[in-house]
Amino acid sequence: MSWELRIPYRSREDSLADVALDTAELDAEDARVTRQLVMDAIGTDATAGELIDRIERMSQAERRDLLDRTRVRVGMDTIADTEAHERFLAANRAIRPRPLQRCAVCDTVPTTRQGFPDLNVPPAKRWHCPAHEHLASAGDLDPPPSGVGLDMSPIPSDAELAREQRRDEQRRREHERRQQERRAEAEAIRKARERYEERVAEDDYVRPEIAGIRGARMDAR
C-alpha cells in the first residue's frame, strides 16, 4: 500500500483555487485530502508551484505527518490506523472455518455422550479418535497453525502454497514455449532471407543495385 500527497495542476502558476477545482480528476479519497491540503495552504502559498516546492522540501517523516493531519481533518484514519485495520481484515479472512475433524484412521468424527458431533474437541493437525490415538505420529495431535502470523498477516496454507507452485510452473512452461516459438520464427526468417539473397545474387533482373532501385515502393494493384 502506498501513500501519496497528490496535487493536480496544469501549470505551476495555477492558483490554489485552480488546484482545488482540478481535484475532480482524483478519486474521492484523494480529492478530499487534497482539497483540505489546499485550504490549509491558503495564506502560506499562492500557487501550485509554491505548495509543491514547500512539500518537496519536507522530509519523508514530515510529509507523512502532514498527510496524517490532513486525513484526520477530513474525518479519515491516519496511515498507521488504516494499515492496522487492513491487517486485521486480512487476518480475519485468513481464519477460515475448519471442517469437522475426522479420525485419520477410521474417518469417524468426535461425538458427545449423546452421539452428536462434538465441536469442542481441540483441533489437531491429524485428529485420531480415542481408539486410534496410539497410532498417531509425532506432531499429529498438535494444534494446527492459526493461519495468521505474529504481525497479523495471513499465512498461506499448504494447499495454497501448492496451488501457487503449480501456477508458477505453468507460467514457467508457458514462458519457455513462447521463447521456443520466437526462436523458431527467427530461424525461419533467417533461412527465408538466405534463400532470397541466394536467388537475388543469381538473377540480375531482381538485383536492386543493377535495376537502379533505391527503396522503391511496389504497387500491388
Order of helices and strands: HHHHHHH
Question: What's the helix count?
Answer: 7
Radius of gyration: 34 Å
* Alpha-beta content class: mainly alpha
**Mean pLDDT over the full residue set:** 76
How many structural domains?
Answer: 3
How many runs of DSSP E, i.e. beta strands?
0
Distance between the termini: 58 Å
Helix and strand arrangement:
Blueprint: H1 16-22, H2 28-41, H3 48-56, H4 60-73, H5 79-94, H6 158-202, H7 208-211
Helix pairs in contact: 1-2, 2-4
Description:
The protein is an all-alpha fold and 221 residues long. It folds into 3 domains: 16-76, no CATH class; 97-155, no CATH class; 158-211. 49% of the residues lie in helices and 0% in strands. The protein has 7 helices and no strands. The longest helix is centred in the last third of the chain and has 45 residues, at 158-202. The radius of gyration is 34 Å and the shape is flat.
Keywords:
mainly alpha; 0% strand; 7 helices; flat; 221 residues
Compact overview of the structure:
The chain contains 7 helices and no strands. The protein is mainly alpha-helical.
